[in-house]
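Troubleshooting: if your tokenizer reports a length mismatch, compare your output against this known-good record of 508 residues.
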Amino acid sequence: MRSSNCVLICLLFVVACSPKTWDQRNLHAPSRPPSPTDAAVLKIHLHSGELVVLRDWREADTALSGTGAWYDMDRRQVRSGTFTIPIDSIALLETSVRHTSRPAGPTIMAVFTTIWGVFTAVCVADPKSCFGSCPTFYVASDTGEVLAAEGFSSSIARVLEARDLDALYAARVTGGRFTLRMRNEALETHAVRRLRLYATPRPPGGRVFASPDGRFFPAGTITRPTRCTAAEGDCLPALTAVDEIERVSTADSLDLATVETIELEFPHATGQLGLVLGARQSLLSTFLFYQTMAYLGTQAGAMLARVERMPPEAARRIMGMARLVGRIEVELWDRGAWRTVGTYEEAGPLATQFTVLPFARAATDGPVRVRIHMTKGAWRLGYVALAQLGEPATPVRLDPESVTRDGFPDDGALATLLDSTRHLVTYPGDEYVVAFRLPNTEEDFELFLESEGYYYEWMRQEWLAEEDADMAALVLMQPADGLRVLARQYRGVAPRMERLFWSSRFRR
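Known-good structure output:
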């Protein structure tokens, strides 16, 4: 649907319908509490498992104070009155904001309501297709500004805060200054601890690739596959060039964890080699996450607060379904047997990411044969190549030089990104331009972006209708069974998810 038609339809919807009231649940980082003018009630989830509900509050340097009620871990009220709560004891903040839709009028608020209506109309059509995937990063390329990376996609809570390293493969570097645009385009709260650029000189005619363990390998010779075989037959045309053509498959209708295999062949090569992959996840992992949120329903905030109190490894186990579908394993045919040479995991359906899985091959006759194992329907594979690798290189590490917002310098945001003890917190529609100074304008650099942080997904009102405690327990505690139960449901929504997902991005 053309965007102009979408605006018209949504405007008519707002004018025609009678007022409707609903509660929107928002999650906030402890370091960025909302103002009492933005919500009637503040729920404070503590690391201890207790809950404090305040009806008026104020923020000090290291604490929140206000009047309300205190509940124990079983949600029994134990006392009421005025409380002062240290920030470092808080796992999560939650608010409920009441909204009423009204006919649009000739005011600025009406214009905003219409824009918001466009966004939510898509999500109402299919709430599991709403756009989301943490901070998005855009860079200038030879074809214009492109989406180049998404940061820390698996870090859905503070306890899961992680470092993400993304190749800015399409970035065009001109002169000694490099800029990227960071956006929050979803109903999410982002907490960005660090943005850092890694610059490594490219070998003549070659590229530099990062391995999953964070090493940087120059590749002087890069060879395309000569054969590619998958369940559908020949898959070679989709994998030989960095373009918009991707090899995709359909998820299994009985078990979303079903694995498929791709076999590739390359010309004879020996020495230090590496399999280069250009891939991004499909919307399967997004669907699984959103469906879990829907099953949790009104308990999503309490569940997330419990996750925040877990050790990181225990918290990662909660994401069991995503872990079962989100891995690529590569095998090499070596001396008459298949051996595993590496695995790759990169959450996020937005930007194609490039990585290299290094391995050594002794002098032997015959072509190089590899197999790729991955979950059916979980990956969009766009590029595969064999690279002759040099010794790992040491990149130049660059911190931001400046940050601008709405065209004006934002020294506060810059200071926050340079201070590893703080987070730059962003909300839907926020956008920052971050600039870096390159060390030598005469060299051709391969650039990589390091981002570190976490984010909170906002609960969609439409999801609450699917609240189901039994299904929530199943997908969280028995993820393999959950993937079988959800297989048919995903097959029903998958054909339209891609279109709706991209059309629901939040922009100012």
